[in-house]
Amino acid sequence: MMDAPEQPDARRHERNVFARGATGTLAIQVVRVAAVFGLNVLLARLLGKIAFGRFSYATSIVTILSVLACLGMDGVLLRFVAAYRATADWAKLRGVIRWGVWVAVAAAAGVGLIGSGVVVLLGDRIAPDLRAALLVALSALLPAVALITVLQASLRSLGRPALASLPRFIIRPGLLAAAVVAWVIIHPVEIDAAVALGLDAGAMLLAAALLYLSLRGRLDPSVRQSRPLYAIGEWTGVGLMLMITAALHTINSQTDLLMLGVLRGMGDAGAYKAAVQISLLVMLGNVAANAIAASMIASAHASEDSVAMRRAASRAALAATAFAVPVAAGLGVAGGWLLGVFGEGFAVAWAALGVLLAGYVLNTIAGPAGLLLTMTGRQKQAAVAVGIGVLANIILNAALIPAMGLLGAATATAVSMTIGQVCMVVAVRRRMGLWPTALHALRRVGRA
Q1: What pLDDT is attached to residue 3?
Q2: Per the structure, how many domains does the chain have?
Q3: What is the model's pLDDT at position 86?
Q4: What is the pLDDT of residues 89-101, one digit of tens each?
Q5: Is there a domain that residue 1 lies in?
Q6: Distance CA 104, CA 108 (A)
Q7: Per the domain annotation, does 174 fall within a domain?
Q8: Which range of residues forms the domain containing residue 196?
């Protein structure tokens, strides 16, 4: 890859684009977290700790299956739309959006049907309330999640990360909260997890419709006028590797909750879900920075501009770390109170929250290593690194949860997350010749 000559105006433009995109996305993410936090508190209080545990358990399964069902098309869209836009290949740009959306939705419907059949066949081996929740989640929520995921990736790849997040993460929680409250007012019986999941599926579909309209409005007229051109073989090959990487990431993020539910019961799963929800606040800066850096890295890679790519990665690492460290410190102090907001019995997850916060801070300092690998065609190396982390996570959770409960799950997650991230940092250094960590980015800034 050839280095493009340094241009002060180009660097200033990159910096401004990154700052605007990251700031806008961060604002959306802050509102999103507030909305999701409020929604989870509402659900926890209306459902109770056990039913909220069932809801969380079912949504965790949907989260994992949606990654498999999308077949990596969200990653394909995020990478190739940005690349085709940089090279003005409008025909392939239109083709990849069409292909990605249809493949993801069809695959999700198939996976949901198979999953529902498995739940029915298991019959009484699954508690009735949990069985009802799983059937609704698999048949209704899963296809809706797959649809909104690929639409969101398409809009993100056009350089609109904030707008892409709005329907799913702001509008949908608001719609679901309103629907749940209306249900409770209209129906005298207590709301259960299955009803909440059905209402969530409806809210997700409405948000997806809004996202589709936004995407159509942001496409260049040249794209809409072009006859779609399909590179199915290339997209499928890349998509499958990205799917494996994303699936491993998702399994890694849900292993603790799922294994807690199996080994310790839905009550512990519900309390742990609250701790996870709070700890993810640390990652807001990471999400915002990576959302804008992804398209910049993919475009720079397509243009063979390694200098611009390195700058995008450095900005992402520094911005995310500058946000994560003070937020983690604040949450560590206020964690007990925040858990108490969820209701009685949730404060038992306070120690687990502290461990999760430490793990996410270390993950942020390591920088956007995974993003660099997946956006530059090195998804195999990313998959291997994440796979090592997943294996460590499963082993550690199985060993620590029986003896330590929630604290064991959090420890297993933090340690395995760090192992996987270190592997990706080493892969970036060996394959691309650069260090992606915030510490190295800070050193480069100091020498500049």
Answers
A1: 45
A2: 1
A3: 77
A4: 888 888 989 898 9
A5: no
A6: 6
A7: yes
A8: 8-447
Task: Report how far residue 264's alpha carbon sits from residue 435's, in angstroms, rounded to the nearest whole number.
Answer: 40
In a domain, 3, yes or no: no
Averaged pLDDT for residues 415-422: 90
Residue owning tokens 């999640």: 145
**Residue range 365-382: mean pLDDT, rounded:** 83
Q: Which of 369, 246, 384 is nearest to 297 (CA)?
A: 369
Q: What residue ranges in 147-189 does DSSP mark as E strands?
A: none
- CA distance between the termini of the chain: 23
Half-sphere exposure of 153 (CA within 13 A, CB side): 23
* Structure tokens belonging to residue 168: 């799913």
The encoded tokens of residue 446 equal 């100091």
180 found inside a domain: yes
pTM over 0.70: no
Give me 236's structure tokens: 């499928």
Give the pLDDT confidence of 268-279 residue by residue, as tens digits. Answer: 877 888 888 888
Query: How is residue 243 written in tokens?
Result: 């799917």
DSSP of 141-157: IHHHHHHHHHHHHHHHH
Rg from Cα positions in the chain = 21
State yes or no: pLDDT of 376 exceeds 90.
no
Closest residue by Cα to residue 381 from 368, 367, 393, 369: 369
Residue with tokens 């499958």: 240
* Mean pLDDT lowest among 185-189, 222-226, 365-369: 185-189
The CA-based dihedral angle spanning residues 364, 166, 378, 1, taken in that order and rounded to the nearest 10 degrees: -90
Q: What's the pLDDT tens digit per position in 294-330? A: 777 877 777 777 787 888 888 888 888 989 999 999 9
Cα–Cα separations (whole angstroms), residue 14 to 9, 300, 310, 312:
9, 11, 12, 8
Return the percentage of the chain with pLDDT > 90, whole number.
20
- Cβ neighbours for 255, distance < 8 A, ≥ 6 positions apart: 390, 393, 394, 397, 412, 413
Q: List, in sequence order, the alpha helices (H) in 187-231.
A: 193-218, 221-225
Question: Which residue, among 64, 33, 70, has the nearest Cα to 152 in the 3D structure?
Answer: 70
Tokens 């809409």 found at: 224
For residue 101, give the amino acid letter: V
Measure the CA–CA gap between 119 and 108, rounded to whole angstroms.
16
